[in-house]
Design a protein that fits this description.
It is a single chain. It is built from five helices and eight strands, in the order H-E-E-E-H-E-H-E-E-E-E-H-H. It is globular. 45% of the residues are buried. The chain has one domain: 2-Layer Sandwich (archaeoglobus fulgidus dsm 4304 fold). A hairpin with a 2-residue loop joins strand 6 and strand 7. The chain has an eight-stranded mixed β-sheet, with helices on both faces. The chain is α+β, with helices and mostly antiparallel strands. The structure holds two DNA strands. Its EC number is 3.1.21.7. It holds the Pfam family Endonuclease_5. It catalyses: Endonucleolytic cleavage at apurinic or apyrimidinic sites to products with a 5'-phosphate. Its main location: cytoplasm.
DNA sequence: GCGACAG
DNA sequence: ATCTTGTCGC
């Protein structure tokens, strides 16, 4: 069987693989009771030479208003071997993310990933790809749009506008443009694996703290970019 | 041919 | 993604 993250694939083969894998992604809710939520993100060091994957595991539910307890953290660094190509991001980031996950002692029931879920040209963004490989429910939380069209979401936290794109059978909703914080540019939420859009949006909103990004992704972002110690 | 383009 | 200081605003 072809590995889900074979980085020795040509762009054409990678695209064909994504089309096949997209058929395995589950778009309906199927998640175990949540007690641990993971945040995943990838950063780079030394001008991109080194890929740095970070996973942060938070306890659910939070102790207070957006006050999550960090249960565990894991970082994995390795030489970067793939360039960034729009639409093929998972081949560049998933291998390192998997290595970071292997370092965890706790197994989360849900993971929020920095990037798109099914809001992808072939409906297999990095969040979906990772969820499929880890056999875990995942949600994609991106800061920018990759594909699809949308209107402007309302001004209040939690307001969202559907992200739609044309598919084989016509127009389909692939994600939500969510206002995670008043007066701030919205984030792009899309199901990764094993949950529907409404459930994905609900979890992201439930994980919001005071900032634009939900806590799992925000903390993983800081760890991946070593912003947690880079302060001086 | 001309844009658009997750991280 | 990353390179980077101060600055405006709640």
């Amino acid at each position: 069987m072809t590995p889900l993250h074979d980085w020795n694939l040509s762009p054409t083969e990678a695209i064909a693989l994504q089309r096949r894998l997209a058929g395995r992604v589950e778009h309906t809710d199927r998640l175990a009771p949540v007690r641990r939520i993971a945040g995943v993100d990838i950063g780079f060091e030394q001008g991109g030479e080194i890929t740095r994957a970070a996973v942060v595991v938070l306890a659910w539910p939070p102790a207070g208003e957006g006050r999550f307890e960090v249960v565990e953290q894991a970082v994995h660094r390795e030489p970067t071997r793939m360039p960034y190509v729009p639409g093929l991001l998972s081949f560049r980031e998933v291998p390192a993310a998997l290595a970071a996950f292997e370092r965890l002692e706790t197994r989360p029931q849900l993971a929020l990933v920095d990037g798109q879920g099914i809001a992808h040209p072939r409906r297999l963004g990095v969040a979906s790809h990772l969820g499929l490989w880890l056999d875990l429910p995942t949600i994609g939380v991106a800061k920018k749009r990759l594909c699809g069209r949308h209107g402007e979401p309302g001004p209040a936290r939690g307001d969202w506008a559907p992200l739609v794109d044309d598919g084989p059978g016509g127009e389909e909703t692939i994600g939500a443009v969510l206002r995670s914080r008043r007066g701030v540019k919205p984030v792009f939420v899309s199901p990764g694996h094993r949950l529907c859009l409404e459930t994905a949006v609900a979890w992201v909103v439930a994980c919001l703290g005071r900032t634009k990004l939900p806590e799992p992704t925000r903390l993983a972002d800081r760890l991946a970019s070593r912003r947690d110690q880079k302060r001086r």
